[in-house]
Amino acid sequence: MDYPTYPDKQPVLSLENVSYSYHTLSGETKALDGISFEVSPGEFLAIVGPSGCGKSTLLNLLAGMIRPVSGRITFHGKDLYEAVRQADIPQIGYMLQHDHLFGWRTIWENVTLGLELKNQMTGANLGYVSSLLEKYGLSEFKGCKPSQLSGGMRQRAALIRTLALNPEILLLDEPFSALDYQTRLSVSGDIGKIIRENNKTAILVTHNLSEAISLADRVIVLTKRPAKIKNMVDISLTITDSSPLGYRSAPEFNRYFNLLWEDLWDEKGIG
Ligand code: ADP
Ligand code: MG
Predict the structure, then answer these.
(1) pLDDT digits over 185-223, tens only?
(2) CATH code 3.40.50.300 region(s) in the chain
(3) For the chain, what percentages of helix, strand and coil (3-state, to nearest 5) are there?
(4) Given CB 3.0 to 4.6 Å as the disulfide criterion, which of 49, 69, 108, 149 pairs with 53?
């Protein structure tokens, strides 16, 4: 298989033959097996794979929460696990399926929480957060509690909280799964746009192939557990309208969908 290479850009992230196993009282669960890929600056990568195959484990490794049992992960050429611990401010932001906003804090107090914890409540940083709220339609809800916002607005607030510390990389673990179909469509479009406009490198885990194809530059398909890389597909869509439905009506869309669907179907068919 020919994997794409980016000769003119140094990778932000590089994984070489990464494996990971969980050890519990009932034995060993091998979650990842020999994963290698690179991520270029500004790239939007989507990861799809069967449920339980090891996707969240992979993101936890990329967040530096755990370290590989074997193999190597580097962030700008340095060991990622060490780099995350040496940094004063997180350079890797993590957004999960549930927004994890604190119910007793206002939206403003939620989105500035990271800055508060890191003692970074400077005028410039607070101005940046204000501008994000303004730009993405949440300014007038600054004083509201999360329960007063819709699910889609809460996910946007959660993303702004993650962006507040200006991380270089965003990891998103099925961030839209709890939303209904229509909200999901518009929020995933909004969030894709916010990530691109702010020049972030992003890695999105999703169950939803349409979402992966419409948001990402490249999709990695994982096998069932222990996850190996089954396929990597560069996505290039001819679009005339950059709305979520616009991406889905691109002429190439169905071809990518069928290709990825077959890869995933193969994996579901076994064991
Ligand atoms: P995915 O996100 O693709 O659904 P995960 O990465 O969460 O999969 O999990 C991969 C496998 O590792 C699963 O079989 C899961 O049960 C197991 N696993 C995940 N976390 C733990 C843990 N903390 N301890 C033991 N096993 C775990
Ligand atoms: Mg998961």
Answers:
(1) 888 888 888 888 888 999 999 989 999 999 999 999 999
(2) 1-90+168-271
(3) 40, 25, 40
(4) 49
